[in-house]
């Protein structure tokens, strides 16, 4: 009985060991792949595929599809920005026209065959003209640039090329002028915003704070009591039930919320006034300027 149990345990241990080896080998192979999943630009001409070995199997496992042709994408970037960015956005993520990174037609396209058909004929009913002057090679280059944008969005290993850029498109001088005309009544490039470009190293984060600034922390306020007395100071508590404050002399005061009126300085009034006036160019120019304050 003891012998059979021992044999059973040994068989089970051997089986588990075999399973571990079988799983560990491919996982090690994946772990040794380059983190980006991108293949280097082919040396033997445009459209050449990568090594065709483990890299391809890893990409299939991650659902990334064939690696974009990096050399063609580089040639396609200026063509895309000249002909397509005005409607589809600088990085193909949409503007007046649809987002190409999510487009089923683009996702099913392999070598520009689907994209090329639309580029050549246009979609007049949707406001897209036909680009008949573009050659087949130019269309292929544009398609590979768009495929590269999908790669940068989908592959976590390439996020540093997309979301951690140190600069953003925009005019530095125009951003400076916009700041001087609209922001200096509350902010200073050498005061509260000094080195803000270092604090927000990612332009997308900085632009987000410009467009949607966070609410200021509870600080100063003025309480008007039932008798009409006005008391200003630093608010300690301000909720639906209690208002508490330390006045200018440091004395702690407290009232039921329903019995007093509380006035808070609106520090975001200027930001709210700008929201309907911002253009896309304004936001990019201002972000470029503030990002330069380091």
In short:
The protein has 294 residues and is of the alpha+beta class. It is built from twelve helices and five strands.
Describe the structure.
The chain has helices at 2-31, 54-62, 70-83, 85-88, 104-108, 113-121, 136-154, 172-182, 196-199, 203-211, 269-274, 280-291; strands at residues 220-224, 230-238, 242-247, 252-256, 261-263. The protein has 294 residues and is of the alpha+beta class. A 5-stranded antiparallel sheet has the order 4-3-2-1-5, with no helix packed on it. Helix 3 crosses helix 7, helix 6 (113-121) crosses helix 7 (136-154) and helix 10 packs across helix 12. Residues 1-45 and 47-54 have low confidence and may be disordered.
Number of helices: 12
Number of beta-strand segments: 5
State the name of the first-level CATH class of the largest domain. Answer: Mainly Alpha
* Count of the separate structural domains: 3
How far is it from the N-terminal to the C-terminal residue, by CA? 77 Å
Task: Record the strand order, biggest sheet.
Answer: 4-3-2-1-5
What is the helix content? 40-55%
Using only C-alpha atoms, the radius of gyration works out to: 30 Å
Shape descriptor reads elongated
The succession of helices and strands, N to C, reads: HHHHHHHHHHEEEEEHH
List the helices and strands and how they pair.
Layout: H1 2-31, H2 54-62, H3 70-83, H4 85-88, H5 104-108, H6 113-121, H7 136-154, H8 172-182, H9 196-199, H10 203-211, E1 220-224, E2 230-238, E3 242-247, E4 252-256, E5 261-263, H11 269-274, H12 280-291
Antiparallel strand pairs: 1-2, 1-5, 2-3, 3-4
